[in-house]
Amino acid sequence: MPPSVETQPVPAPNGPAGPVLSVTDVHKSYRAGLLSSARVRAVDGVSLELAPGETLGIVGESGSGKSTLARMLVGLERPDSGSVLFRGRPVAQGRGAAGRATRRSVQMVFQDPLTSLNPRMTVLDIIAEPLDVHGLASGRAARRARVEELLGLVGLAADMAQRFPHEFSGGQRQRIGIARALATEPDVLVCDEPVSALDMSVQAQVVNLFADLQRRLGVSLVFIAHDLAVVRHVSHRVAVMYLGRIAEVGPADRVYTEPAHPYTQALLAAAPVPEPAARDRERIELKGDPPSPLNPPSGCPFHTRCHLAQDVCTTTVPPLAGPKPDPAGPHRSACHFSFDRP
Amino acid sequence: MNEPVNGPAPSDTPALRVRDLNVRFTTERGEIPAVRGVDLTVRRGQLLALLGESGSGKSVTARAVMGLLDQPNVHVSAAAIDVAGRELTAMRAAERRRLRGDAMTLVFQDALSALNPVLSIGDQLGELFRVHRGASRRAARARAVELLDLVGIPAPERRVRDYPHQFSGGMRQRILVAMAVALEPELLIADEPTTALDVTVQAQILRLLDRLRRELGMAVLLITHDLGVAAEVADDVAVMYAGRIVEEAPVGRLFAAPAHPYTQALLGSIPRLDGPREALAAIEGSPPNPARLPPGCSFNPRCRYATDICRAERPLLLPVPAALAGPAERTRTAACHHTEEVLRAAVG
Fold first, then answer.
1. Residue contact B280–A207, C-beta within 8 A
2. Which value does ipTM take for this structure?
């Protein structure tokens, strides 16, 4: 890929087409252990929409529920309640042609390309597997041609198709994983920590690839990561998760320059800055670790670590709300004290 | 018998001095040179970050210094490894073992697997004082409580009886730091101490390490792959690539004007929290396989400054000409045939 390619996210078309993905009040909990009756509330009431051609970044720490949400978006997990709809159809259910068509349209890129690629299969067969499952290539020649086209799309040479995953570097393996996810021409790619397992000198290549693919294919991206700078770089909008809920969501530039939720503010302040002169910046330091999702605090889940917390925060869950929509898109925060609320 | 091994060293003796460290792994496929001719000096109270990607040799360097590579298929050689003036290369294994945990300590990335799950925190911390200092059980327990307090564990008198699984990830990492500083070592090596932690907890642990090395006057060698972490706490940074140090400089100079193309390329490729969201200046290719290093400079296939000499001749790690080094109180070094050109690019 030429390094001169612009990766500034292209403005997401927010036309009359409506969202490609609509997530409405999804919940998902797991039993805490084999003999335990306690439940881990991994995702606890999340609603989201994804526009065509848009990149939605999701950031959060471990236990925030971001990976569980990702698995529900592609239908790998079924929500306990609430719905995940792709253009009006549920992604997790649906037998027959309609169900398959939905799943074909929403694909996933995993974090670790080494464990998500079958070591005994050639790159050709790995990338062609979704074509076979969905009957998208008729005949060996067409199958091979399509795989070579996909390899070219992600910046790999066509003659690599006969090789096995272990013959590739980490960055190349992630490109193979992306090529496989693109095989069915999906409308939505859900990427769970797609660059965090890569060496730092290789991360930028893959980040640029995502931006390039979006511009060329118009695919919508859900980009989940714990690295705030990477998420900012690729996203039109950003959602910040904390203990299974969305703490704040809004246009990327707004969330990063005017964070409305005290958790977002603390997260941004805590991120190490590759600039020694910034060491003495003022920052809000959080005490302690994130609470266990097994036993989340009452009221606002963040109140145990929040420097703004008042009595109301321990009793009342703040709604995810914001000022009237502005031209840049709605900016909402789940805090009793955001946007100068009383 | 139980005399402290780390007597006071003269203050001008560096806490760590490594000269020409080489580590080779012998595998079925042949010899793999993991560390090639590394020199390091860490002064008392100094925090030096050893920065590199996976496979660069940074962790192997740390383990070689600690003497944790005594295995049949690993060959370690060095002209010198001095910890607070004591020469380790000539030492017997038993002597070196006594230095570990006392004059030099190591904090690992994964706190859960570094702690013993069936011993209370108090027993594990107290053991250090009982074994190395011959303290009584009661005195050791009292010191353990003090240490938990020092690293910011709330209610230390109560928590000292708890077991590792009863602590959160961040608290466990604090306990590891407590164990590492217990005997007031000359040198603390921290190997990716915050990589497994969440961002908000990482900031706490970095702050803690920085405070302790000031309060206790320890030398800290921080192994990291994260430019942000190095920028937050390091005094100086040594950058490793393919088993060698390619550049060393005071942290401010390194980030403002890198002297090696690899450092410069890394700084250009990372996304930022501010500034324009334009295309990242990605580095082409991947880090080299240590078993199949290119001739000349190991970075040459990925380097935009590379010329014929880079493919033929390995550049030595040399002082950067004073006129170009910038206002640095200490000398900087770089291993590049084109350092002057790289430095001018930063200025221009």
1. yes
2. 0.83
Q: Which fold has domain B16-118+163-234?
A: Rossmann fold (3.40.50)
- Residue A142 CA to residue A148 CA, distance in Å, equals 10
Q: Tokens 């005094």: give the residue.
A: B235
- Which residue on chain B is closest to A61 by alpha carbon? B198
Q: How confident is the model at residue A94 (pLDDT cuts 50, 70, 90)?
A: low
Question: Cα distance from A310 to chain B (closest Cα, Å)?
Answer: 22
What distance in Å separates the CA atoms of residue A226 and residue A29, rounded to the nearest whole number?
22
Q: How far apart are CA A55 and CA A252, in angstroms?
A: 10
B231 and A278: CB-CB below 8 Å?
yes
The answer to whether A170 contacts B169, with C-beta atoms less than 8 Å apart, is no
Mean pLDDT for the stretch of residues A173-193: 94
Nearest Cα of chain B lies from the Cα of A76 at a distance, in angstroms, of: 26
Asked if the C-beta of B135 comes within 8 angstroms of chain A's C-beta atoms, the answer is no
Contacts A4 to B, Cβ<8 Å: 279
Across A41-50, A86-95, A289-298, the highest mean pLDDT is recorded for A41-50
Give the span between the Cα atoms of A201 and A255, in whole angstroms.
27
CA B91/CA B201 separation, integer angstroms: 39
Of A62, A208, A268, the CB nearest to B280: A208
| Closest Cβ opposite residue A267 in set B199, B271, B274 | B199
pLDDT in tens, B242-275: 999 999 999 999 999 999 999 999 999 999 888 7
DSSP-assigned beta bridge partners for residue B31: B26
Q: Are B229 and B49 in contact (CB under 8 A)?
A: yes
Question: Is A289 in contact with B171 (Cβ distance < 8 A)?
Answer: yes
Q: Return residue ranges of chain B for CATH 3.40.50.300.
A: 16-118+163-234
Q: Which residue of B has its CA nearest to A210?
A: B279
Q: In what order do the strands lie in the sheet with A245-251?
A: A106-109, A188-192, A220-225, A55-59, A237-242, A245-251, A332-333
pLDDT tens, residue by residue, A223-236: 999 889 999 999 99
Cα angle: A284, vertex A288, A294; to 5 degrees:
125
Average pLDDT over residues B275-295: 85
